[in-house]
TrEMBL record:
Classification via Pfam families: Fer4_8, LUD_dom, LutB_C
Ranges for domain 4Fe-4S ferredoxin-type: 304-333
Species annotation: Modicisalibacter muralis
Single GO BP term: lactate metabolic process
Keyword Phosphoprotein listed: no
Protein name: L-lactate dehydrogenase complex protein LldF
Length: 478
């Protein structure tokens, strides 16, 4: 399979290519339809709005106390025997993890699923230092074999169908070509099991870090997370600083929201609670546990009282599953670690708005993402905010904000603003436009590549209402 490089700067070209690829559209359409149906069924007997409100309040409360909770988390983790490390950015986090590996003489690392590690390009950093890093999540394992990045934050290989996976595994690992999913899964499990036993270090992400108890919670379905965090002698957990929650009781409602929103499950197969390294009387578990807390732009987001809502995210992927744009172009089109609606509001802070200025506009603003977000992040509102900043309006707090606007676009909108605030001129101009509607061009830039050019109505709505009222009055008299 050919491997492509995707960037956010080339979003429009990449989207055009994806729209012209029937296999990508079929893969995503089938997968997203299934996930939307499963979410709907999973919440069928629940008061979902009350649960969403509770989840949002838990996340908002944690963010309101974030500095204090992070200090409390550090203290509790250290009391439990977990060593805590702070990283200002992704590069520093990679250096910390590489140093921990080198201190143990590690040459082989096995990794559980972690979007933060993708965000900071950890695998490439370790491999450059001569340390092999192998993904153990099945989807991550497949995209690593294919030399790609994940196309979804929950289901990394969702862009591949069974035939493509079969061909990939045959080419890379020598398995038979088959459509037998059980065979392919068993073959991958056998390949990975040997690597778990040989790994010097296990690296995982964190779904929830509990400040009250110093507990690291890990949600998974395959058991690879449990193997990664217990078999190797060293476990390194890496997470963004926003993943902290205040109390252990806060985890239950967030877990219920996460599993139902992500995959339509009531519970996942595994829910791991890690509170420290192996104790002397215990027979398994790691000798060392480390927690790396990564900022990487999150503190800057935290300073903005609107964009702060971005940090509520629990990484369920529901906004992607319901997004008509993501469903048609796929995750790689965005060219960023986090694709879809959540990526369009998060990546401008991580990479700068100038480099990602097309992403906030990669939305129909239908509002589906905001309606299904389990913690009620107002994604459409934040997309509009970033669109304004991308053209030099708004607050301009995002790195790289203030791009130069197209002069003709500026003049067009100023003209519309003037007409919309002068009723007489508006009526006259719309009347003229209706009479000249036959002269409306069929091509109105790229917008009409996939749409029919709109024509002004022959008769305005106001005129139709007046005519209707006049006719009704005449009928009443007669």
């Amino acid at each position: 399979m050919s491997v492509e490089t995707y960037t956010p700067q080339a979003f429009h070209r990449q989207a055009h290519d994806a729209l012209g690829n029937p296999q990508i559209r079929a893969n995503f359409r089938q997968a997203m339809d299934g996930l939307m149906g499963k979410r709907r069924d999973a919440f069928g007997d629940w008061d979902v709005e009350t649960l969403r409100e509770l989840g949002a309040n838990i996340r908002l409360r944690a963010l309101a106390k974030l500095p204090d909770l992070l200090e409390q988390l550090e203290a509790k983790c250290q009391a439990n025997g977990i060593k805590v490390h702070w990283a200002e950015d992704g590069e520093q986090a990679c250096e910390i993890i590489r140093g921990l590996c080198e201190a143990r003489g590690a040459k082989r690392v096995i990794k559980g699923k972690s979007m933060v590690s993708e965000e900071m390009h950890l695998n490439a950093h370790l491999e450059a230092a001569g340390i092999e890093a192998l993904e153990s999540d099945l989807g991550e394992y497949l995209v690593q074999l294919n030399e790609q990045t994940p196309s979804h934050i929950i289901m990394p290989a969702i862009h591949l169908n069974t035939d493509e996976i079969s061909d990939l595994m045959h080419a890379k690992t020598g398995t038979e070509r088959t459509r037998d999913v059980d065979y392919l899964t068993a073959a991958a499990r056998q390949q990975l099991r040997e690597r778990f036993m040989a790994a010097d270090v296990g690296i995982s992400g964190v779904n929830f870090a509990v400040a009250e108890t110093g507990t690291l919670c890990l949600v998974e379905n395959e058991g690879n997370g449990r193997m990664t965090t217990t078999v190797p002698p060293v476990h390194i957990a890496v997470t963004g600083i926003e993943k902290v929650v205040e109390h252990l009781r806060d985890v239950a409602p967030l877990y219920a929201l996460l599993t139902r929103s992500a995959t339509g499950q009531h519970v996942t197969t595994y829910f791991n609670m890690i509170s420290g390294p192996r104790k002397p009387e215990e027979h398994d578990g790691p000798e060392e546990v480390h927690l790396v807390l990564v900022d990487n732009g999150r503190s800057a987001i935290y300073q903005d009282d609107e964009l702060l809502d971005t940090l509520r995210c629990i990484r369920c992927g529901a906004c992607m599953n319901h997004c008509p744009v993501y469903t048609r172009v796929g995750g790689h089109t965005y060219g960023t670690t986090y694709p879809g609606p959540i990526g369009s509001i998060l990546m401008p802070h991580l990479q700068g708005l100038e480099a990602t200025k097309d992403l906030p506009s990669a939305s129909s603003l239908c509002g589906a993402c905001g309606e299904v977000c389990p913690v009620k992040i107002p994604i459409p509102d934040l997309l509009v905010r970033l669109r304004k900043e991308a053209v030099g309006e708004g607050r301009g707090n995002v790195a790289g904000a203030g791009a130069k606007r197209n002069r003709s676009e500026v003049l067009a909108w100023k003209g519309f603003q003037w007409l919309a605030t002068h009723p007489g001129a508006w009526r006259a101009s719309t009347g003229i436009a209706g009479k000249l509607r036959a002269l409306t061009p069929a091509k109105l830039g790229p917008w009409t590549d996939y749409r029919t050019a709109p024509k002004p109505a022959a008769t305005s709505l106001h005129a139709l209402v007046k005519r209707h009222r006049r006719d009704a009055k005449q009928e009443g008299k007669s």
